[in-house]
From TrEMBL:
<feature type="transmembrane region" description="Helical">
    <location>
        <begin position="731"/>
        <end position="756"/>
    </location>
</feature>
<feature type="transmembrane region" description="Helical">
    <location>
        <begin position="412"/>
        <end position="430"/>
    </location>
</feature>
<protein>
    <recommendedName>
        <fullName>ABC transporter permease</fullName>
    </recommendedName>
</protein>
<dbReference type="InterPro" id="IPR003838">
    <property type="entry name" value="ABC3_permease_C"/>
</dbReference>
<feature type="transmembrane region" description="Helical">
    <location>
        <begin position="821"/>
        <end position="844"/>
    </location>
</feature>
<dbReference type="Pfam" id="PF02687">
    <property type="entry name" value="FtsX"/>
</dbReference>
<keyword id="KW-0472">Membrane</keyword>
<feature type="transmembrane region" description="Helical">
    <location>
        <begin position="781"/>
        <end position="801"/>
    </location>
</feature>
<feature type="transmembrane region" description="Helical">
    <location>
        <begin position="364"/>
        <end position="386"/>
    </location>
</feature>
<dbReference type="InterPro" id="IPR025857">
    <property type="entry name" value="MacB_PCD"/>
</dbReference>
<keyword id="KW-0812">Transmembrane</keyword>
<feature type="transmembrane region" description="Helical">
    <location>
        <begin position="442"/>
        <end position="475"/>
    </location>
</feature>
<feature type="domain" description="ABC3 transporter permease C-terminal">
    <location>
        <begin position="735"/>
        <end position="850"/>
    </location>
</feature>
<keyword id="KW-1133">Transmembrane helix</keyword>
<feature type="domain" description="MacB-like periplasmic core">
    <location>
        <begin position="19"/>
        <end position="236"/>
    </location>
</feature>
<dbReference type="GO" id="GO:0022857">
    <property type="term" value="F:transmembrane transporter activity"/>
</dbReference>
<dbReference type="InterPro" id="IPR050250">
    <property type="entry name" value="Macrolide_Exporter_MacB"/>
</dbReference>
Length: 858
């Protein structure tokens, strides 16, 4: 009990010194808790939505796309005959059945050709209004559509785009454009995560979305009273046989959950990964805090040992303080995490994915996980300082000898650090020489971990070397004040190394990702310059196929030498070795050989566009023993089987169309029914000589009525790629900012405790003439050199990781190494400002010390 009282008293006595460490725990736990709350809330939102939109049993075609699959490239969903509705109604256990039409291959624009559909990754869905829709929606304005010129929209879309009754919308589908006026607005009864929903009358939906009447995409079945969904499904299976796909409400909800589950999992584990980095950085802060607190309480610990406290009790006292710190930081972190989740929901709403706080989900596991992580990490971080405190002998402590310096331990530490760093460097080097990316990735991961740990362990040794170099460059111009700042940074290399290592981790990741991102852009740009011969590329950001009316407008644009169609055809290939594999064939016009320059290792690529011919990649050819002149049996999905002759084998040493198998559009059309021929996923165009600018403008004008597609020349395409990678990196940098914030807190905490530790020394310096301004400058310069030391280690380590990653990814086409020097130099310079900022409060407190009181301090 005495140990507990002592620990609580010490914790409260040093609560100011513990504050920044508590903030580090708070931030780390908040990120974990916020991530869990946010993903649980999204799961709740989607669960409610999927449960409310599904009937007791849903009947759909066997080939219908699953919830997590892309819509059909034909632009039309799979359908079943309307006559099946009658068969379902006669089945036992059925109370009612109705046919429904639904398609996500649509784009909706207003009278100014502005896209009013979903833009956040959520779908735009068009269909017919059914009784089943009343489960999730209610008409709050106007009425349901009654004819071909009427449409109803969801309230969220109407609010977002200021739509009202009487406004005209144009729905772009593969069968043509549907023009209709808004006659009704329906409101979701549950949260709509961002989808745009349009309703037509049944006949208009069938004709517009499916191309003919008498078809439905699914049948919604309601069970009789007392009949379970499982029983109803079994009865329907008996009535319909195995011709159609049957799913209960739960199965439909599970399928919908799975469709968003992968996205949520990626987001969840990525954010938890960054939280782990923040925890790792926080460990350095906590270790430093407790190390300095133990050093400052040496005499107190000696007195405890002298009056009978054992090493175990002293050790336990320090660890108990860590437990208290972990509890306080974790509890506030969990609360902050809920706030962070709400903030993320607001951010997602601003981007188009609507989430309601009414669905806010805080499971009991979230605070338990947050509290456990916070306490465990804090106790582990405090273990070494606590163990060191227990080793202090009573006589040494009473003499104020401080913690014993162990030269042998320092040498062992240095040796271990060198071995780990050397092993990590060897692993990174091995990864760059791997013949397969899968093999090299293991060495790359191991090298990253080993070099990181090695740099952390060897940090005190590196501090003595690099701080002197940095001081020569940065501090010498400040005279005696600069030299004192240098000596202060070198006074305790272990502390300086740990403080710099906290900043090193975040900046190493920033540098690594910057190198990889820049190399991706440079490699892609280089590849485009080498291979892409087309002047213009036309495609949709959302992957929508190019509708015939848009294609016709493109082909009629003036100044165009040729337009190339490019379709993806699903098929099964039977190779000479007897194996059957599912593959996509790229069906294109023969002009595609001009638009994309591909090196062949055998045969002529132009011959692949002849009748009943094709090409394969050299990787596929090697795996299956395929050579020029061989015939492959190709079973086209939804069509016939054909014997296609291999006319060319292309090199897979590319990043554009790597592994593609080419055939002609005429060949695909020969073996596929007209309604099963896919629409173009992308198109290419070449301008007439000297008319590039005119053709570019003409193509853009031709697609003005179709905002879902964009025309890009090669410059646009490269910039778009650069912007996409830049946006991704900015998100990652933002998340890494949490680790950097924790590292900055570590610098602040180290300086603040260092000022307390050197109170008497500061008083003496002031007494012999050091001004307050010089004192504050000394502390700021010490902070700057520590921050620059951490930045130097981090950026150097990160560039090493990034270079090794690029060399490994060169096997996958990332052949150009580019070091983003402006970013690297900018981060290094910014680190100096980080050091200045971190020193503001400690320097201010030091400057306000009373000289006589400081000198009198023990």
């Amino acid at each position: 009990m005495t140990v507990v009282k002592t620990s609580v008293r010490n914790f409260l006595a040093h609560k100011g010194r513990m504050a920044l460490s508590a903030v580090a725990v708070l931030l780390s736990v908040a990120f974990v808790s916020g991530t869990l709350v946010f993903t649980d809330t999204m799961n709740t939102t989607f669960d409610k939505l999927f449960a409310s939109t599904s009937s007791d049993v849903t009947v759909s075609p066997k080939g219908a796309a699953a919830a997590d699959e892309a819509p059909s490239q034909t632009g039309k969903p799979e359908a079943l005959p309307a006559s099946v509705v009658g068969r379902v109604e006669k089945s036992p256990g059925v109370k009612s059945a109705e046919g429904a039409v639904s398609s996500m291959s649509v784009t909706v624009v207003d009278t100014e050709n502005k896209n009013v559909g979903a833009t956040s990754g959520a779908p735009t869905i068009a269909g017919n209004w059914t009784e089943n829709d009343l489960r999730s929606m209610e008409i709050t304005s106007g009425h349901a559509p009654r004819g071909p010129t009427e449409v109803m929209v969801d309230a969220d879309t109407a609010d977002k785009h200021d739509l009202k009754l009487g406004d005209e919308l144009r729905t772009i589908v593969v069968t043509g454009d549907l023009r209709a006026k808004i006659v009704g607005i329906a409101t979701f009864k549950v949260t709509n995560p961002g989808a745009t929903v349009l309703y037509f009358d049944t006949e208009t939906a069938q004709r517009g979305l499916l191309g003919e009447t008498g078809l439905f995409t699914q049948i919604n079945v309601v069970a009789d009273d007392g009949v379970s969904d499982a029983q109803l499904k079994a009865d329907l299976a008996g009535s319909l046989g195995g011709t159609y796909k049957l799913q209960t409400q739960k199965e439909m909800a599970d399928a919908g959950r799975d469709s968003v589950g992968s996205f949520l999992d990626v987001m969840k584990y990525a954010m938890l990964g960054f939280a782990g980095i923040a925890f790792l950085v926080g460990i350095f802060l906590i270790v430093n805090t407790f190390s300095m607190l133990v050093a400052q309480r040496t005499r107190e610990i000696g007195l405890m040992r002298a009056i009978g406290s054992s090493r175990r009790q002293v050790n336990g006292s320090v660890l108990l303080e860590a437990v208290l710190l972990g509890i306080v930081g974790s509890i506030t972190g969990v609360a902050a995490g809920v706030g962070l989740a709400v903030g993320l929901m607001e951010l997602m709403s601003s981007m188009g994915m609507e989430l309601s706080t009414q669905d806010l989900t805080v499971k009991w596991t979230t605070p338990v996980i947050g509290l456990a992580l916070g306490v465990v990490v804090t106790v582990l971080a405090a273990y070494i300082p606590a163990r060191r405190a227990g080793k202090i002998s009573p006589m040494a402590a009473l003499r104020d000898a401080g913690t014993p310096a162990d030269g042998r331990a320092g040498r062992i530490r240095g040796t271990i650090g060198l071995v780990l760093t050397g092993g990590g460097a060897a692993a990174l080097l091995t990864s760059t020489r791997a013949e397969k990316a899968s093999e090299g990735s293991l060495f790359l991961g191991g090298g990253v971990v080993l070099t990181l740990i090695g740099f952390v362990v060897i940090g005190p040794l590196l501090a003595g070397f690099f701080v002197r170099i940095l001081s020569t460059v940065v501090l010498r111009g400040f005279g005696p004040v600069g030299r004192m700042a240098e000596r202060n940074a070198l006074r305790n290399p272990r502390r300086t190394g740990a403080t710099g290592a906290a900043l090193m981790i975040g900046l190493a990741l920033v540098a690594c990702l910057s190198v990889v991102g820049s190399s991706m852009v440079a490699s892609a740009t280089d590849e485009l310059d080498k291979t892409v011969g087309a002047d213009f590329i036309i495609q949709s950001d959302t992957g929508q196929p190019i509708v015939p009316q848009a294609q016709k407008a493109l082909e009629q644009a003036p100044g165009i030498a040729h337009v190339t169609e490019y379709k993806m055809v699903e098929a099964k290939l039977t190779t000479p070795d007897g194996k059957t594999v599912s593959e996509d064939l790229a069906a294109a016009d023969s002009t595609y050989a001009q638009d994309l320059r591909r090196e062949t290792v055998a045969g002529e690529l132009s011959a692949a566009y002849d009748k009943d011919s094709m090409s394969v990649g050299d990787t596929f050819a090697e795996e299956h023993g395929v050579k020029v002149g061989d015939e492959l049996t190709v079973a086209f999905k939804g069509g016939e089987s054909a014997k296609l002759k291999v006319a060319a084998i292309t090199s897979d040493d590319v990043s554009v169309d790597k592994g593609a198998k080419y055939t002609s559009i005429a060949t695909a059309e020969r073996y596929l029914p007209a309604e099963r021929v896919p629409k173009n996923v992308i198109m290419f165009a070449a301008a007439e000589d000297g008319k590039e600018k005119e053709a570019y403008a003409a193509l853009k004008d031709s697609l003005a009525a179709y905002p879902q597609y964009k025309v890009q020349d090669q410059t646009d395409f490269k910039q778009d790629l650069k912007d996409q990678i830049g946006q991704l990196l900015n998100i990652v940098y933002g998340l890494l900012g949490l680790a950097i914030i924790v590292a900055v807190l570590g610098v602040v905490n180290t300086l603040a405790l260092s000022v307390v530790e050197r109170t008497r020394e500061i008083g003496l310096l002031r007494a012999i003439g050091l001004s307050r301004r010089q004192l504050r400058r000394m502390i700021r310069l010490e902070s700057v050199v520590i921050a620059l030391f951490g930045a130097l280690l981090g950026l150097g380590l990160g560039m090493g990781w990034g270079t090794a990653a690029q060399k490994l990814l060169a096997l996958e086409g990332l052949e150009v190494l580019e070091i983003p020097w402006p970013t690297i130099i900018g981060v290094f310079v910014a680190s100096a400002f980080v050091g200045l900022f971190a020193a503001l409060v400690p320097a201010f407190r030091a400057g306000r010390m009373n000289v006589l009181n400081a000198i009198a301090t023990d």
